[in-house]
Amino acid sequence: MSGNRPQKPATKLVHAGRRSSEYHGVVNPPVLHASTILFETLADLEKAGSSAPGKVTYGRHGTPTRFLLEEAVAELEGGFGTLCVSSGVAAITNAILAFVKPGDHILVTDSTYYPTRNLCNTFLKRFGVETEYYDPAIGGDIAGLIRDNTALIWCESPGSLTFEIQDIPAISAAAHARGVKVLLDNTWASPMLCRPFEMGVDVSVQAGTKYIVGHSDVMLGTITTATEEDLLTIKKQIIISGDAVGPDDCYLAQRGLRTLGVRLRQHHESGLKVAQWLQTRPEVKRVLHPALPDDPGHAIWKRDFIGASGLFSFILKPVTKPQLASMVDHMDLFGMGFSWGGFESLILPSDPKNIRTATKWDEDGQLIRLHIGLEDTDDLIADLEAGFARLEMI
């Protein structure tokens, strides 16, 4: 903030979490490497256990390099505060574990990121927490699934691989009527495209590895809360888990954050152009992109989101495995790999069938997820067109 004048998100991206005046006018926050922190007096040492935000007590608990990144993310998301951890999965794990105990029941969208499902089906199950998966399109009807022992509802909008948009305000209203926390994986949109706390979310989680970092070279997770109470609850869980993110990674995330707005505008424009082109292709059965007017979630996306990122999927008409391999094995610009959010475009064949339980994925065509990077879209389209040509030759 500058005085009492509210700033636009693009301006906040440039200035939040910098505090140059505290570091001799240096534009970017310094990288402070530390494990041991020395205290001048016994009184200072005894205060080291304080949970006050921004207090430097031990390297694992953070230094200003991390604290300034957390300050910036919290301001952008509109939350009370943010905690950074070592990966997106670490953010998911610590956020959920902070609010559950043996005997609890949680509700998780059936379209969730696979590592979230893996956590629920393995560790949480052994820990005595029951997970019930729900249809991502359930909206306010989720009230009928809430039990007396329901601790939280996990949302992800749009969903991984299949990109269903959830009615988060309706889910939040139903949850809060029963005193249940709502947690949202906001990685696809980032704070620039979706404002989770304005929709009633209690905790927003991101894999900062993706769009915040933006350069495919850092693992990072962020957890932002609406209240101080929830922030302290999650901070205690992170301390117990021993999770920590290094200062160099925080520094690179700060650098990536500054260009998040301009990158996302390009991802949106390029992604939509490629998605619209794919809709014209005879090889394509359906494109799964919430910004397309005929997408089932488009109306809610238009209501709740400012834009779209570069990640979406499409479904091929039925092909053989050799045809699929011929297409994806020889792409010039689309790399084949996990993750997304960087400057480079990616292609990933996937099959949601085996990871759905509350809803049925019965598409007979091959699902392919794309991340549209920052290359020229004409070149990306030409690469995909050549891939389709190879598919037809087998």
Automatic annotation (TrEMBL):
Required co-factor(s) are:
pyridoxal 5'-phosphate
Reactions catalysed according to its record: L,L-cystathionine + H2O = L-homocysteine + pyruvate + NH4(+); an S-substituted L-cysteine + H2O = a thiol + pyruvate + NH4(+)
What InterPro entries does the database record attribute to this sequence?
Cys/Met-Metab_PyrdxlP-dep_enz, Cys_b_lyase_bac, Cys_met_metab_PP, PyrdxlP-dep_Trfase, PyrdxlP-dep_Trfase_major, PyrdxlP-dep_Trfase_small
Q: Which Pfam families does the annotation name?
A: Cys_Met_Meta_PP
Q: Which UniProt keywords apply?
A: Lyase, Pyridoxal phosphate
- Give the enzyme's EC designation: 4.4.1.8
Keyword match Lyase: yes
Instruction: Classify the source by domain of life.
Output: Bacteria
Q: What class of enzyme is it?
A: lyase
Offer an example of a GO molecular function term for this protein. cysteine-S-conjugate beta-lyase activity
Q: Tell me one GO biological process term.
A: L-cysteine catabolic process to pyruvate
Give the coiled coil ranges. Answer: none
N6-(pyridoxal phosphate)lysine found at? K210
In which pathway is this protein known to take part?
A: Amino-acid biosynthesis; L-methionine biosynthesis via de novo pathway; L-homocysteine from L-cystathionine: step 1/1
Instruction: State the family it belongs to.
Output: Belongs to the trans-sulfuration enzymes family.
Name of the featured protein: Cystathionine beta-lyase
Naturally occurring in which organism (per UniProt): Thalassospira xianhensis MCCC 1A02616
